[in-house]
């Protein structure tokens, strides 16, 4: 079986681990509790679902090719993983945007 390069997995799991930690931190501090809870659950379930569904991929296909192929076929797991990743990107955008607006706000 072919597989993606190690650096892809390092970035992938690092992103998910940082997201888990940040979402947990924001849950404890009660900053955007519902959004952070969804981000935490998404970061937990994405790798599990992707891994379980990548185990049965065809010979000669790497994880990325299998994901794209499953997405084109309309597989529910691939749609979930794509949607959850998009949610995490939007969530990170909101985290940084809120942080930036807090820093810019000047008390008068």
From TrEMBL:
UniProt entry keywords in alphabetical sequence: Membrane, Transmembrane, Transmembrane helix
Transmembrane helix recorded as keyword: yes
Transmembrane segments: 6-28, 35-55, 75-97
Domain of life: Bacteria
Name of the featured protein: Uncharacterized protein
Organism the protein comes from: Metabacillus mangrovi
């Amino acid at each position: 079986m072919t597989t993606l390069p190690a650096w892809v997995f390092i970035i992938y799991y690092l992103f998910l681990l940082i997201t888990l930690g940040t979402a947990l931190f924001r849950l404890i501090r009660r900053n955007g509790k519902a959004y952070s809870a969804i981000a935490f659950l998404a970061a937990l379930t994405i790798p599990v679902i992707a891994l379980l569904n990548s185990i049965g991929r065809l010979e000669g296909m790497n994880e990325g090719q299998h994901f794209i192929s499953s997405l084109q076929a309309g597989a529910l797991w691939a749609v979930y993983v794509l949607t959850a990743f998009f949610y995490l990107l939007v969530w990170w955008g909101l985290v940084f945007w809120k942080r930036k607006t807090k820093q810019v706000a000047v008390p008068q």
